[in-house]
């Protein structure tokens, strides 16, 4: 069992892990359980089972039950092409693959997934479902045996995936069940939109999963054949339960080519209503609203029949169902908002609605009408299904529509009560939620928190508002203007749904935006960016104030960046900088510092995109502006402080372009400013001092001043440890970075044991960050893993070194695929290390494709900047030559080394000292390849002579370094010279020493 606090999951295996509270337990064999600190699971994994078909009489009591996808009453039809695509995806080559299946409510996602699950299970796949846990689902007693044994593969199905917090999905994706060596694994995620997919996809990339999307399109209206086929199949299925032998003469109640019938659910509703109307002698309605009202009328009739008329009963006390239709109507309305909840939460909600005295009876009666989806999970208030019918029920119950359905005057107050309720969370409440038993300890008012069902309620109302305008205009948006915190408490999916709705009330969105947290927020980042983007447009239209224009764009850029939209963030930041430049001199005292700050942020965004030259220009401009400010008549310590910060950024940008000496000078000036201000009594945050020391240490290390770098970086680590104790969310990143640098400096100082400890701690912290912030921190984890691999090699732990380096390479591959300019260079370096590790174990066949990949990456770098990267390409080509030769592929080896020689000759002409040694080495290899391939001996000796002349020249200048190499080349030349005519043997070559 693993707590969701960043600690490492236990290794996979066929062991059982059980969490028990007061005799009530949930276990999983062959998989992990991830829980909150109080023991509540983040999610539940269950083996998929064939649905149990309910008794016909029970289904007929409330016909809408036949629309519930989990009962699979209607035969599967009309989505065969989509099903075939899922089968093709499942049977594709990657070991681990995930697909985002999305479409609006009622499109048939759940039914399609169920059919796919059934057929996969028949074909030998182990099918597992994941249900999100906090506040809504609690562990069933007993265990789930998820060992795969003889399975062909494992298929995990995640419904409502767009409502899961990203961090919880991250934990799910790390479950050992999904990472069995050699076991094909597929993750099918169901969602209404594709809005949250980019963040989920980035999280999956950490596991090197193949990813794809599948949009479930509306049913074709061309000739209505697909819809007619689906109608006929559903009509026949429903008619069976009504005892109608031949339903072929039951026509659709409305033309199926109407746009309303693009949804699978709409066609099924038409078939169900048509059959029910025939069975009851009614006339079916002819539009979608009428079909909905018809089915809801049947719900009311069911409640009334259950309640009956007890005035003439002989023994009224024996009645088991006592809730009136009027009360049941209100409870079903509330349940449509909350969804299934633990019994104590349901009882508390009824108390808030004034039903406390009859709460147990009402909850029991509601369970008769709407039993729990999983009888083993003790929940109440199962909502009306399908979801779209529940949404329409909410809209029709709220006053403000013109359809022939009675609105309820109590509905607005009920909705507000349900949405604004507070849940009292204490150890007592948590215990009761899991066990249904109380300990007698009463919670206090100051422990109140928002209800956990908001993540369902707000998106449900938002979806209803898309089709029923009065829901948004009269209820949802006025409520959010009064209680904007509800949108944040509802989570990322709710924020996205609100931002994406065209009819959303601007004032409500503005109220929400004012509460959005600044800085990174793992689970809300995309929603925060979406809300901010939505409100910025109207703000810009409402004002001609350029200062506000600049501020809005700068703020939006930061939130886009936090959400992982790096290119969009850079574009928005650039627009903000341009406005700041335009107005800078209008009010320099106010505008120039803000322009400098905007330039610092913009430069950071550019650097992340690999646009290093442009990033340097912005950093230099920011420093120049800050120097101008401190030269003014009204300069303050704040101006000097900003200059020190800008110089620190400039040092990083200079380092990025290889200007190490200039970078160190900037870092030292930044530190000097801080020291001077501190001596004058200016106080700095601990994090500011630590950041300054970290920057200085990195620049010193680049200049080979290891001991000084180590001292500075150690101060940074000490500082960041203090800040993490106070605010881990804000400073874990800083400590992870500092530990990474500290480990590198310790390694250079020959303190291997300490270097290993620092590197391992850094990797641990980066893993925690990636679980929450996959979009932002994969690069940090990749870098830390590479450095950890370096330490492992030095410690003689070759297998561990290879594992760390291979994981680093996987991350850099993903990063480079999204942004080659920023990550190709590092990827090439890591791939080179990976190849070297394999070669050290003589695993040449495995190293060869990695070296081939390295050459391809180096070619991309050369295409972008030949001067900076041709030497790297030449080295990669030489390494590829050596491996090809080891694999007896000499012709390919020759092509590679000939290209390397051409590059080295060109580079040596401009910088002999840097490139002549490598040129001699490549010429030596080429000469021996020619020899092995039986080239003309004069050509072999001419090439070898070139190498020998260079080696002699190098040895004359630096005998200590090159004398042995020169002797070996001369010896080889002397050995081959007699063979100018006729050869009796062929020799293998190696690198010149």
Strand content: 5-15%
Measure the end-to-end span.
53 Å
> What is the helix fraction of residues, given as a range?
55-70%
Number of helices, where a helix is a run of at least 4 consecutive DSSP H or I residues: 39
Biggest sheet: strands side by side, in what order?
A: 5-7-9-10-6-11
Shape: globular
Structural class: alpha/beta
The overall pLDDT, averaged over residues, is: 87
- Which stretches are poorly predicted, pLDDT < 50 over at least 5 residues? 1-25, 134-141, 424-448, 988-993
Report the count of strand segments. Answer: 15
Structural key phrases:
single chain, 993 residues, alpha/beta, 6-stranded mixed β-sheet, 3-stranded mixed β-sheet, 39 helices
Structural features, described:
This protein has 993 residues and is α/β, with parallel strands linked by helices. It has 39 helices and 15 strands. Strands 5-7-9-10-6-11 form a 6-stranded mixed sheet, sandwiched between helices. It has a 3-stranded mixed sheet with strand order 2-3-8. A two-stranded parallel sheet has the order 1-4. The longest helix has 21 residues, at 588-608. The two termini are 53 Å apart. Mean pLDDT is 87; it is low at 1-25, 134-141, 424-448 and 988-993.
């Amino acid at each position: 069992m693993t707590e969701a606090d960043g600690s490492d999951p236990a290794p996979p295996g066929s062991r059982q892990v059980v969490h028990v509270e007061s005799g009530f337990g949930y276990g999983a064999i062959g998989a992990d359980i991830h829980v909150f600190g109080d023991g509540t699971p983040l999610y539940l994994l269950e083996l998929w089972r064939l649905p149990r078909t309910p008794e016909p009489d029970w289904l007929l009591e409330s016909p809408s039950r036949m629309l519930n996808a989990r009962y699979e009453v209607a035969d599967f039809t009309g989505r065969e092409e989509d099903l075939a695509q899922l089968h093709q995806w499942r049977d594709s080559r990657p070991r681990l693959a995930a697909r985002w299946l999305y479409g609006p409510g009622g499109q048939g996602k759940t039914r399609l997934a169920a059919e796919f699950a059934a057929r996969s299970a028949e074909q030998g796949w182990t099918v597992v479902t994941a249900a999100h846990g906090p506040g809504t689902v609690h562990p069933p007693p007993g265990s789930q045996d998820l060992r795969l044994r003889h399975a062909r593969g494992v298929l995990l199905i995640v419904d409502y995936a767009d409502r899961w917090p990203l961090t919880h999905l991250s934990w799910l994706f790390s479950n050992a069940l999904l990472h069995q060596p050699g076991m094909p694994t597929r993750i099918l995620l169901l969602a209404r939109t594709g809005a949250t997919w980019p963040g989920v996809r980035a999280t999956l990339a950490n596991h090197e999963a193949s990813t794809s999307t599948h949009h479930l399109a509306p049913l074709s209206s061309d000739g209505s054949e697909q819809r007619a086929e689906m109608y006929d199949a559903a009509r026949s299925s429903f008619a069976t339960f009504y005892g109608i032998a031949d339903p072929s003469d039951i026509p659709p109640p409305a033309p199926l080519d109407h746009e309303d019938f693009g949804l699978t659910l709409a066609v099924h509703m038409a078939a169900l209503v048509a059959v029910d109307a025939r069975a009851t002698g009614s006339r079916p309605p002819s539009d979608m609203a009428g079909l909905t009202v018809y089915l809801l009328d049947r719900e009311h009739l069911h409640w009334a029949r259950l309640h009956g008329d007890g005035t003439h009963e002989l023994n009224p006390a024996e009645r088991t169902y006592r809730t009136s239709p009027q009360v049941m109507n209100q409870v079903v309305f509330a349940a449509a908002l909350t969804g299934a909840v633990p019994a104590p939460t349901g009882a508390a909600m009824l108390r808030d609605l004034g039903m406390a005295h009859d709460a147990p009876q009402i909850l029991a009666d509601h369970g008769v009408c709407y039993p729990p989806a999983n009888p083993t999970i003790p929940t109440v208030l199962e909502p009306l299904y399908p979801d779209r019918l529940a949404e329409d029920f909410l809209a029709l119950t709220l006053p403000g529509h013109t359809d022939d359905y009675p609105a309820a005057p109590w509905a607005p107050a009920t909705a507000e009560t349900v949405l604004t309720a507070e849940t009292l969370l204490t150890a007592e409440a948590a215990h009761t939620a899991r066990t249904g038993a109380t300990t007698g300890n009463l919670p206090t008012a100051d422990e109140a928190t928002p209800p956990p069902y908001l993540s369902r309620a707000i998106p449900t109302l938002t979806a209803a508002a898309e089709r029923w305008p009065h829901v948004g205009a009269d209820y949802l948006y006025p409520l959010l203007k009064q209680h904007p915190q509800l949108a944040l408490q509802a989570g990322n999916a709710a924020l996205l749904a609100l931002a994406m709705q065209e009819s959303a009330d601007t004032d409500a969105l503005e109220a929400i935006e004012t509460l959005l947290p600044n800085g990174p927020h793992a689970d809300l980042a995309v929603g925060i960016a979406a809300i901010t983007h939505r409100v910025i447009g109207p703000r810009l239209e409402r004002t001609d104030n350029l200062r506000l224009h600049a501020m809005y764009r700068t703020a939006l850029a930061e939130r886009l960046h936090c959400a992982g939209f790096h290119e969009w963030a850079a574009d928005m930041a650039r627009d903000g900088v341009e406005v700041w430049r335009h107005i800078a001199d209008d009010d320099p005292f106010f505008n120039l510092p803000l322009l400098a700050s905007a330039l610092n942020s913009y430069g950071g965004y550019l650097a992340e995109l690999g646009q290093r030259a442009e990033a340097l220009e912005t950093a230099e401009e920011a420093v120049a502006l800050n120097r101008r400010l401190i030269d003014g008549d009204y300069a303050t310590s704040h101006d000097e402080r900003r200059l020190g910060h800008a110089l620190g950024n400039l040092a990083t940008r200079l380092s990025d372009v290889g200007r190490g000496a200039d970078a160190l000078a900037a870092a030292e000036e930044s530190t000097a400013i801080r020291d001077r201000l501190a001596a004058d009594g200016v106080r700095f945050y601990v994090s500011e001092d630590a950041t300054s020391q970290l920057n200085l240490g990195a620049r010193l290390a680049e200049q080979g001043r290891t001991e000084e770098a180590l001292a500075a970086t150690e101060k940074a680590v000490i500082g960041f440890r203090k800040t993490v104790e106070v605010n881990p969310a804000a400073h874990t990143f800083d400590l992870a970075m500092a530990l990474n640098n500290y480990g590198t400096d310790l390694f250079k100082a020959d303190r291997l044991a300490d270097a290993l400890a620092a590197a391992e701690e850094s990797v641990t912290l980066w893993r925690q960050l990636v679980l929450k912030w996959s979009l932002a921190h994969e690069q940090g984890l990749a870098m830390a893993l590479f450095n950890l691999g370096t330490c492992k090699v030095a410690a003689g732990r070759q297998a561990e070194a290879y594992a760390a380096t291979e994981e680093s390479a996987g991350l850099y591959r993903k990063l480079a695929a999204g942004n080659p300019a920023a990550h190709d260079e590092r990827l090439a370096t890591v791939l080179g290390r990976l190849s070297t590790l394999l070669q050290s174990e003589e695993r040449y066949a495995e190293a060869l494709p990695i070296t081939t990949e390295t050459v391809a990456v180096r070619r991309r770098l050369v295409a972008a900047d030949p001067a900076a990267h041709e030497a790297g390409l030449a080295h990669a080509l030489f390494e590829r030559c050596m491996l090809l030769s080891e694999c007896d592929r000499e012709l390919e080896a020759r092509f590679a080394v000939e290209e390397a020689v051409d590059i080295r000759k060109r580079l040596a002409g401009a910088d002999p000292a840097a490139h002549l040694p490598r040129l001699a080495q490549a010429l030596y290899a080429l000469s021996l390849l020619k020899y092995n391939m039986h080239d003309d001996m004069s050509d072999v000796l001419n090439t070898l002579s070139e190498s020998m002349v260079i080696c002699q020249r190098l040895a004359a200048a630096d005998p200590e370094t090159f004398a042995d190499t020169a002797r070996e080349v001369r010896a080889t030349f002397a050995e081959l010279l007699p063979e100018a005519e006729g050869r009796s043997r062929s020799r293998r070559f190696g690198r010149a020493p």
